[in-house]
Specification:
ten-stranded mixed sheet; alpha/beta; 10 strands
């Protein structure tokens, strides 16, 4: 399993390195640090601004990148012969994504500092941009690393359930875990009270479908690595997942892969879940 981890000087970045070791035993691990000089990435801009000491400034940040990579590398087992380190000048999210493509990564992992959604939209964040633009499964870590014992698997339909099932079977965790397979039925909001009969029929069908879905996924995943529980709840998806995740060590969801205008207009359930859940979140694509 090839994993790319974005690192900086944040506590969440170092927790991400540790969390990876609680989850998997990667065959190849690449630590990536992006040296973000902003507009001063280009010497001609610094010259136009008459910025004195530009070379010293640039070299100091590059050296700081080497130091943060060394610190992250020291957290790994001594037999990490397959470790790579990337320290480049540029936008950190773009460097992480480019590196993942170059090495053929199975997973990207980044730490998140917990900015609210408005701050992310205005200022951006590395984790936000990686999650938005990655075509690969992405692990977001917000808190201290810890062993994984209980995992919430949230499924909406057969397509995303198949993606999650395939991932969990091909990439099992280091240790056996308890999986709780969850589906959330979103209640209809009726404008016309006379349509109550049709509403009740729809609700019954939706609940039945969700029950069948979680039982099917659970049976497909049951084995020596996983013990299985299933649950169906009603409510708004992200809020319901966040509530069910309170006692969990990891949440696994699938991304529908919307891009561009469609994503802007319709939003992203997986991204909403990332904002509400405090434990690590694995977004499978």
């Amino acid at each position: 399993m090839k994993i790319v981890v974005g690192v900086d000087w944040s506590e969440q970045a170092f927790a991400t390195v540790q969390q990876i070791l609680h989850l998997y035993r990667p065959s190849e691990l690449t630590l990536v640090h992006g040296v973000d000089l902003g507009v001063f990435e280009y010497p001609v801009v610094a010259q136009a601004a008459n910025l004195q000491g530009y070379d010293d400034f640039r070299n100091a940040l590059v050296d700081a990148g080497r130091q943060v990579l060394a610190r992250a590398a020291n957290m790994l087992p001594g037999d990490s012969d397959s470790l790579r380190q990337v320290n480049e000048i540029g936008n950190p999210a773009e460097i992480i994504l480019k590196t993942a493509e170059t090495v053929g990564a199975d997973l990207i992992a980044v730490g998140a500092r917990g900015q609210n959604r408005l701050a992310e939209l205005v200022l951006g964040s590395v984790s936000h941009r990686v999650l938005m633009h990655s075509t690969r499964p992405t692990l977001i870590v917000k808190s201290d690393a810890k062993p994984i014992q209980r995992v919430l698997v949230a499924v909406e339909g057969r397509a995303d359930a198949d993606r999650i099932r395939q991932w969990l079977l091909v990439h099992p965790f280091v240790n056996p875990v308890e999986l709780l397979v969850l589906s959330v039925v979103v209640p209809l909001r009726l404008a016309d009270p006379y349509s109550l009969v049709g509403f009740e029929s729809w609700t019954d069908r939706a609940m039945s479908y969700a029950e069948d879905l979680v039982k099917t996924v659970g049976s497909e995943l049951m084995g020596s690595r996983y013990s299985i529980g299933t649950r169906v709840v009603t409510g708004e998806v992200a809020a319901a997942v966040a509530e069910q995740a309170q006692d969990m060590d990891l949440v696994v969801v699938a991304s529908h892969g919307r891009k561009g205008l469609e994503r802007f207009l319709l939003g992203s359930t997986s991204h909403s879940i990332v904002h509400r859940v405090h434990c690590p979140i694995l977004v499978v694509r």
